Amino acid sequence: MKAFDYVAPRDLGAAVALLAEHGASAKILAGGTDLLVELEAAARVPKVVVDVSRLKELKGIAVTDGGLRIGAASTHNEIMRSPDLRNLFPALVEAAHTIGAVQTRNLGTLAGNLVTCVPSMDSGPALLALEAEVGIMSPRGAKRMPLAELFVRPRKTSLKPDEILTEIVIPKANLGKPSAFLKFGLRKGQALALVNVGVAAWIKKDCFVAPRIALGAVAPTVMRATRAEAFLDGKKVSEEAMAEAGRIAATEAKPISDFRASADYRRDLIETLTKRALATAVARAQQSAKEAVA
Ligand SMILES: Cc1cc2nc3c(=O)[nH]c(=O)nc-3n(C[C@H](O)[C@H](O)[C@H](O)COP(=O)(O)OP(=O)(O)OC[C@H]3O[C@@H](n4cnc5c(N)ncnc54)[C@H](O)[C@@H]3O)c2cc1C
Questions:
Q1: Are residues 145 and 123 in the same domain?
Q2: Range of the domain at 84
Q3: How far is the CA of 109 from the centre of ligand 1 (A)?
């Protein structure tokens, strides 16, 4: 690997100042599980690498007035252990659990997973289904935008070189919305997704309300299956409705054939995983309703 300078700023302000000074010749480092692999093979490396992994402003997982805030430098292991996430958003915990092996999950962060922006990222579908927003800090100040606006194309986000992802927020309106995540890979562990699916839906009077279905590894970026969502909204919960939502989602995706799987096989997986993830979210909603009356 070619040499570069390494700086670990003491706080977020210092990190922003470094990015303002170095612009496109700086690169942010978190857990390094994607970036260091990339730099090893790269013909050109950044002049300076800015390590944000220990910034306390980028840490912590807590319910706040605005919703559930996840510090951008939270590791997948911290996500898996968070009582709030386990209780309120099992889909994200399930997604974190499937990422790499223990060592990868100990180092790899949520921000790194989103910013690397590969279509098969596991956090993306769970967070899109929960309508997450991202907080960004730069020399121009703080801003917030829907997560969906972060993803541009494979390995390309809308972030500018001097912008740091600081937090991921699941809005208050979605706190506790029943959710589920499923991934299918060629092995049970340490496998990239052939397809992954995140879903969330309220169940009211036995009907789907505001269902959200997000898919990974089947389009240039993770995507929402909005036609399947519209079909399901207001429908009575049934096997048939969930199966039809899966079929519609499969028609919305644009999977490719590659050495891992054919596009047709991926479409079959979308149908099956969407139906199963919806059934899991429904079961969770029914369990919560039972606990509420007990
Ligand atoms: C063996 C192995 C297995 C893996 N398995 C999976 C898997 O199953 N599923 C999966 O989804 N991924 C997998 N990954 C990919 C990787 O581990 C994850 O994407 C991880 O979350 C990346 O996080 P990181 O903190 O290591 O990012 P880094 O490598 O530090 O950074 C990645 C990118 O994000 C940018 N970045 C990091 N933090 C910020 C920030 N706060 N603001 C702005 N930009 C930022 C960096 O500049 C860089 O471009 C695997 C990786 C390995 C090595």
A1: yes
A2: 56-174
A3: 6
124 CA to middle of ligand 1, Å?
12
Helix (H) or strand (E) holding 135: strand 133-138
Q: 265: domain CATH number?
A: 3.30.390.50
Ligand 1 near 34 CB (within 6 A): yes
Q: Which helix (H) or strand (E) holds 100?
A: none
Same domain, 47 and 65: no
What is the 26 CA–ligand 1 centroid distance (Å)? 17
* Confidence band of 189 (pLDDT split at 50, 70, 90): confident
Q: What is the pLDDT of residues 80-124, one digit of tens each?
A: 999 999 999 999 999 999 999 999 999 999 999 999 999 999 999
From the CB of 52, is ligand 1 less than 6 Å away? yes
- Say if residues 189 and 99 touch (Cβ distance below 8 Å): no
Residues 82 and 31 reside in one and the same domain = no
User: What is the distance between the alpha carbons of residues 284 and 147, in angstroms, rounded to a whole number?
Assistant: 25
Closest CA to 249 of 203, 215, 284, 209: 215
Q: Using CA of residue 11, residue 168, residue 135, residue 159, what is the dihedral sign?
A: positive
Shortest-distance atom of ligand 1 to CA 37: 53
CATH number at residue 44: 3.30.43.10
